[in-house]
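Cross-posting from the modeling subforum.

Setting up a comparison between two proteins and wanted a second pair of eyes on the formatting. Protein 1 (sequence, then structure tokens):
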Amino acid sequence: MRVSVRSLSILSMVLLLTPVSLMEASISLTVRSYVDCYIASWEPDTPHASSQVLKVSRTAVGNDTVEARALLRFDIGEIRSHIPQYSKILNASLVLTTYNTSNPTIEVWDVRGELDIFGTTWNSVRSGLPWSNPGGDLIEKWGEGAGSFPQAEINLTSYVQAAVDNELKSSGWLLVKIAEGQEGYYEFYSEVSGSNGPVLTIEYEAASLSIVLEAPEVVVTQGENISMRVYVTGHLSKPINLSLEGPDFLSYEFFPQQGFPPFNSTLNLEVPDTAPGGEYTVVIRAEGVMEASAPVNLTVLERKGFSVVGPSRVDLVGGLGRNVSLRVVPTGNFSGEVSAGVLGSPEWLNVSLSPQSGIPPFNVTLSLTSLHGIEASGVLSLVFTGARNKVYEINVTTRVRRVAVYSNDIDWNLSSEDLISAANSSGVTLQRINSTDEFGNYDMVIVLGGHKAPTDSNMPSNIAASLLSGAEKASLIEGGQVVHVSLEGDTLVVVVAGADRYKTSGLLQLDLNGNGIPLAQELLAGDPRGIRGA
């Protein structure tokens, strides 16, 4: 879609009503704890592993407090194996199946250290290694909730997000305890109990990032400003920044420049009066923990000038000419004359232009012919001079032509020596084919013999009979000779025919153009469309 400044502003109002992205289904994951235990201050050096029920409590006894805390571990590696890093965690809950409770508020913390449940106690991380603080070295509280029947659910969305983003300071052990300032008890089933054990239920959107543009093509006149919408789609837990790569004269600003996908941003572009007219590629980038980009084709119109429209690439076949049309169109109120010329060209390329000047709008025809027998590529630079100079570049490639011969054995035996010799000196590989179905595989097919040439196994059908005109057939009957050239699809088909087989063979040796080059050589190295009589 190509959009002007006016139509872009109208489209903006429409797209403002469009959601930034289609609703994407979230993904659910359930992870079970694979090891747990509890520790008790009244048995400070006794481990409590393999228990069906985990105890969490706090009770005041005189001036002292006795307490039990539960420790459980989820496989962080398993979570990361399912959820790509920087995915957006929508919700994560620790679900505990209640055995007995006084309905206290319970808290979930992570703790330092690598525990061994058969040696973990109120006083020790594991056998022989004490806690810095008896009852567990707490790091951060990640959630709290009511310890109620039939289940307790504690929101741990931030914890799982940190785990997925590889930002946890712990090895994955969680500690469950009574909230500070409260007393009571909460008992829940351990992982040993089977299906009633602790689980993490996670809902997330997988990490993704892309850019959708309001308009991939924009046309603006010198001195104008333009705004367009940029839709940053996807899901990430981290913000991304927007930036732009483009020509030096272009000023830009995003509002906002940063955000969490998905979000919308407005891109303001400022094109100064001095900006050169022409077509430019502008790349909008979203960068952060992931990257995405999208190109914009920007056309700058001069207030008083002209532009050149045409192909940026042309593929040639050695020795075969090709015409290419360029269109010179005015911009603004320009009405002067524009002249065209060649600024630079590969040495293997012959170029001519017609006309070489005109008043826009007008067409310029490029006639291009490359040398035969080479494979090459290069840049053709044209200069157009009017209100200012413009350079127009075309990438040009050339390759060796593919040539085949279609004939009966009689004509082939009489003519093959001349054709093979011409092919060898031209650097062309000559193939003999026996079916008209193969014509499309070649740039040029030489057909030997006229409409009366007999068919055989190598020429099962007389194609010349359908290609030659009535006048050409009459000429052959009267003892003349014919070189007929026609374009069949993308293939040049050249019928070389004399009044009989010997005159057909002799025709290949004649210099029809008067340049000292026999016809066989003209066919293999030149353009048969320029042969006299063709």
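Protein 2 (same layout):
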Amino acid sequence: MNKILMASALALSVALAACGGGGGGDGDNASGNAAVSNGSTSSGSGASGSGTNSGANSGTSGSGSSASSGNSGNSGSGGSSGSGNSNSTSGNSGSGSSTSSGSSGSSGSSGSSGSGTSGGDTSGSGSSGSGTSGGDTSGSGSSSGGTSDSGSGADIGNTIAVRVSSASSVLNFPLVSVTICQPGSSAQTKCATIDNVLLDTGSFGLRLYASTIPSDTLAALPIQRDAASGNNVAACGVFGSGYTWGSLRSADVKLSREVAASVPIQVIGDPAIASSAPSSCVYNSSLNTVRALGANGILGVGVARQDCGAACVNTAQAGYYYADAAPATPIAMPLASQVTNPVALFPVDNNGLIVDMPAIDASGALTASGTVIFGVGTQSNNALPGTAATILTTDRWGNFLGSVAGGATVAAFIDSGSNTLSFEDWALPQYQGFYAPVSVIQRSLALSDVTGAATTASMGIDNARTLLSTKFMAFSTIGSFLAQTLDLGMPFLYGRRVWYGIEGTRSGGSVTGPYVSFAAR
């Protein structure tokens, strides 16, 4: 279903890989970052680790209920226990014109500048803020030694900032802010801005934790009901790292000046859902708290419109939608009611997006700041890639074909929600599931699609033991083991513009989604 891959050598008691086992970790103040991947069948080696990066853990990379051709399943390295203080994010204090603070267990924002944490260790500044529960993440605090480059010109209302920093305890976690409002209000009523939401180009739809949404905003978001039983509808999200369980509600979603009206979203941990997650939803670790994920939610903006699609319209599919009964029972769901990629519902810039990230030093950076640009070929700042860039047609999950260093051709994808470069290479030495060559090595990539389009790229892999001993949060050369799959995670996006075309839409009158493309900045 969804891809969000996370490699965690810095986290405490968290298994993050698809079907991955855990292991004990050592080190100073180790906190978590483990690798994960998508696929219908997975197995993985445990990863837990050491490092001075503090924090809790998670990643997501999704396993799909239907796999693309050529994808025979994936395996990943999973994070597990490590030593250190999992409650500290070593975040940076920030300032805003006003700040809102949350209370333990729940917090909220009034839309004012700044963000607060409850019982926690960090606070940060932002254009608008929301509180977080548990003290795990908050704000978008700044720190020295980072790389910032918006990559775009004057703001014309179709861009948002994306930032990797210690605002999350997970390395290479790109975070954005999302505003939700009462549906049908043109994003004007009962609004709240939620900071530190994971930007995930490998999954589809907005998923926020109930604990991060102010109570008056949550009450303004109607919950969907099952017509047959009259019960509330529960939604399940299955990722390579684990699963989320919550309600299916509707909200206006605002990103910059872009407004998607009445978007079906998942509210994770919603107290309106009485039933526990059924066994058909449970997969690997529970990601049902802010602390478990390392972010206040997931903004899935991959190439699909809905998280399930046509398969769920007439037939109940396990792992997606349920009537909130005892026990929860799978139900069918119309397309218009499924958890939906909000970009697909924008009035104009609805055919895709571009993620534009600056290059960072090969040894890492404390921060990295870039831009998400909505629409492709719809505005002056989102043109299609030039003739030097190849457009790769994907399946609805974002998969194309790839091989590493002349090896076997496997399913491949470019996923901002995966925090490492994950691939299969038995010759490389490993350190707790991460690759650890003696010195930086280069691996060539051959990428293609079912139409015959093909291109090449390369990636550098450095020693993870060395990288993770720093306090950096952004790494372009960190890799992890993942069998039978090539996951070009967040490290691949540094120094590149990456285009994502949404299924069934046209870009520039000549290119139809789903597709991906990339070019050096």
